[in-house]
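Researcher: Let's do a round of design. I'm pasting the structure tokens now; please hold your answer until I've finished.
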């Protein structure tokens, strides 16, 4: 008011002194400028203090808390000021952080894990584990994804991320059915707490906190064939020829450890792959990309240049005496490159160039939990103890004691506590930073690609991971089995991984271990055509499951062909999820939060917001019951033709789904673009689309399309609106 009166006084009875008036006006703005500058400072420092707008338009609050002296993981990319902890919905007690669960609340998150999308009712341990036994009683898989969400998803929803590279236990109604307890082994960690109105708001805030997800090249969205046992170049050629012969689309063939010279990283077995470079070029002319494996251990062998360089420069992890720590994996005695050391990480990443220079443009990292078959020290102790057992009468107690000791050789906790890393200028025992190894191995490759081929997208995915690695590569879901339950687990794991930033992901179609059946592989493909990573992979010694080996080859060709028909939508939704920090695979409750039944459906997912899928995950059935949260129209992909099926009303309905068909359920008022297909991604015309919809008012579809190779992701020209 004082400023207003002063400015008014400059207006004369008969005229106005405009020069003086303008000067006064400028003076009056000085306090506003000062306030604005200060406000900018506090806004940048404190999202948790003032909040930001979520998807729903409500305030989202993000707070950071520091306990002890946390080990930096580089999981979070956004700078936040820290706050002092005060108990609210989460109560800090001696044994951890507690949240009282209401009967109808859902707990989401934890990325790669067993059981359902709703994580209630079990105890999960974040500890990257080489564990092929993905059963209900499993506590840990290959990833450590310490993010959960809890709340009603409509009014009050909370996200919590525990940023620490050590073990974290999430007891979600296991010890006490009404209690969620999160506990850490050491009092050195960061907590990020997010409050928002909805699950989607929380996810978006978290994803912005941890940074943009890895973006794969578009060719990597095609169908890939893999098997541990492609022992020669001629076998690779045979696989490619059989796919072409049976008119089955294919874009990549994966090379497991068999292509290496005695399982040594960055080598070629010239006895069985003598013409490796020619093979790479030959396949590329057929639009087939070869994707080799890289393991986490380096063979200890005099004269092997990778080992000699690592030893000479001190790039390997050390034991307590400062000597190279010796472990056993595929090649026998090996050393672990110290992936957490900057120099060692750069050195190991540079080795990928050996294969890039041979024409390779995709890699998968394995055995990087890291897997340990044995340590030299522990194996010696077991052999010594076996001498004692030789002299014993092995009764029930001593027999199981002996077998337990032998079984405990692999991935022994004492081994993980026996070697050290040089990380950010300090020496850390491995078990303190265990969950970072796979993350930083993948980071080493990604950073090398930026140095050597900065403009080109390289396919890269890993087995072990921690949040933060999602910026550098994707993951596959590990050594699953040829079980129907693992098909269902694949479905449930997709949204959980999306929540944690992992978008380029998928499971081994048909299962890696055990013997697959024709119907299992076909049903699995009916779902997997929607997952970004689409790869059929199996283990040596199991039944061969290249799809041309089964009786109904034509059905497999049809289903895989669907992938190239729907690829414009799949790729568009993937890119938007990566660039906008949203979900590609949505649980029903994310779109229908007020619908109590939607939160209980776990074997149906939305791909983006437009279409729902409900895969068949049971053997010997010709359909399934589907829950429709609103009335929706069925699209049936069969024999290369798209049939427009019936419109289902809201509620439960039985839907006939014959094997070899793909069913999509379209929301009223939404568009679904479909291409004509092709025998590889390169064949797909992303411009010539047929738009499917139903209803009177159809929303335009935000369609993302770029060249699929370069990294100019954010150009406005890549977004166009499709409309009927």
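Researcher: That's everything. Go ahead.
Model: Designed sequence:
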């Amino acid at each position: 008011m004082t400023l207003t009166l002063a400015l008014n006084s400059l207006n004369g009875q008969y005229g106005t002194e405009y020069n003086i008036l303008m000067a006064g006006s400028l003076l009056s703005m000085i306090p506003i400028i000062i306030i604005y500058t200060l406000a900018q400072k506090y806004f940048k420092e404190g999202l948790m203090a003032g909040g930001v707008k979520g998807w729903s338009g409500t305030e989202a609050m993000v707070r950071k808390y520091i306990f002890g002296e946390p080990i930096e993981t580089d999981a979070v990319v956004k700078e936040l000021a820290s706050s002092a902890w005060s108990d609210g919905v989460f109560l800090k007690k001696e044994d951890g952080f507690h949240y009282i669960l209401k009967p109808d609340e859902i707990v989401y998150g934890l990325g790669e894990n067993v059981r359902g999308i709703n994580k209630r009712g079990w105890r999960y341990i974040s500890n990257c584990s080489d564990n092929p036994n993905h059963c209900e009683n499993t506590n840990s898989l290959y990833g450590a994804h310490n993010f959960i969400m809890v709340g009603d998803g409509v009014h009050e929803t909370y996200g919590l991320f525990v940023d620490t590279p050590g073990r974290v236990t999430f007891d979600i109604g296991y010890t006490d059915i009404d209690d969620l307890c999160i506990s850490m082994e050491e009092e050195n960690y960061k907590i990020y707490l997010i409050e928002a109105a909805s699950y989607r708001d929380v996810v978006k805030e978290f994803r912005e906190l941890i940074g943009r997800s890895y973006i794969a090249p578009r060719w990597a969205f095609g169908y890939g064939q893999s098997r541990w046992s492609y022992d020669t170049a001629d076998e690779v050629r045979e696989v490619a020829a059989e796919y072409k012969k049976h008119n089955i689309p294919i874009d990549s063939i994966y090379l497991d450890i068999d292509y290496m010279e005695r399982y040594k990283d960055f080598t070629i077995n010239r006895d069985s792959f003598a013409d490796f470079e020619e093979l790479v070029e030959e396949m590329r002319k057929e639009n087939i990309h070869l994707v080799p494996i890289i393991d986490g251990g380096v063979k200890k062998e005099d004269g092997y240049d990778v080992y000699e360089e690592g030893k000479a420069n001190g790039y390997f992890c050390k034991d307590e005496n400062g000597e190279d720590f010796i472990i056993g994996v595929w090649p026998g005695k090996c050393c672990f490159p110290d992936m957490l050391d900057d120099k060692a990480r750069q050195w190991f990443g540079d080795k990928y160039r050996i294969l890039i220079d041979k024409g390779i443009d995709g890699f998968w990292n394995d055995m990087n939990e890291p897997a340990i078959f044995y340590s030299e020290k522990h194996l010696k102790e077991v052999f010594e103890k076996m001498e004692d057992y030789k002299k014993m009468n092995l009764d029930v107690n001593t027999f199981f004691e002996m077998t337990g000791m032998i079984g405990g050789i692999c991935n022994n906790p004492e081994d993980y506590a026996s070697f050290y890393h040089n990380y950010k200028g300090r020496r850390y025992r491995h078990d303190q930073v265990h969950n970072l190894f796979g993350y930083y191995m993948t980071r080493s490759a990604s950073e090398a690609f930026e140095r050597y081929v900065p403009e080109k997208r390289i396919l890269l995915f890993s087995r072990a991971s921690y949040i933060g690695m999602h910026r550098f590569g994707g993951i596959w879901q590990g050594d699953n089995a040829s079980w129907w339950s693992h098909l269902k687990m694949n479905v449930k794991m997709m949204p959980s991984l999306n929540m944690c930033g992992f978008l380029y992901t998928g499971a081994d179609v048909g299962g890696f271990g055990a013997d697959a059946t024709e119907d299992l592989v076909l049903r699995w493909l009916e779902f997997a055509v929607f997952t970004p990573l689409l790869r059929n992979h199996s283990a040596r010694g199991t039944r061969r499951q290249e799809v041309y080996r089964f009786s109904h080859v034509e059905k497999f060709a049809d289903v895989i062909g669907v992938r190239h028909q729907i690829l414009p939508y799949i790729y568009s939704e993937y890119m938007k999820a990566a660039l906008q920090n949203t979900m590609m695979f949505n649980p029903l409750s994310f779109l229908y939060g007020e619908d109590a039944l939607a939160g209980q459906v776990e074997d149906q997912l939305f791909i983006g917001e437009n279409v729902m899928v409900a895969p068949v995950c049971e053997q010997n059935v010709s359909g399934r019951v589907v829950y429709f949260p609103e009335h929706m129209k069925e699209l049936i992909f069969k024999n290369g033709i798209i049939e427009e099926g019936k419109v289902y009303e809201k509620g439960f309905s039985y839907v006939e789904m014959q094997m070899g068909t793909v069913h999509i359920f379209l929301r009223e008022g939404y568009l679904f673009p479909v291409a004509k297909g092709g025998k590889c991604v390169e064949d797909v015309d992303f411009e010539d689309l047929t738009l499917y919809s139903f209803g009177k008012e159809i929303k335009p579809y935000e369609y993302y399309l770029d060249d699929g190779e370069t990294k100019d992701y954010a150009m406005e020209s890549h977004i166009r609106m499709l409309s009927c």
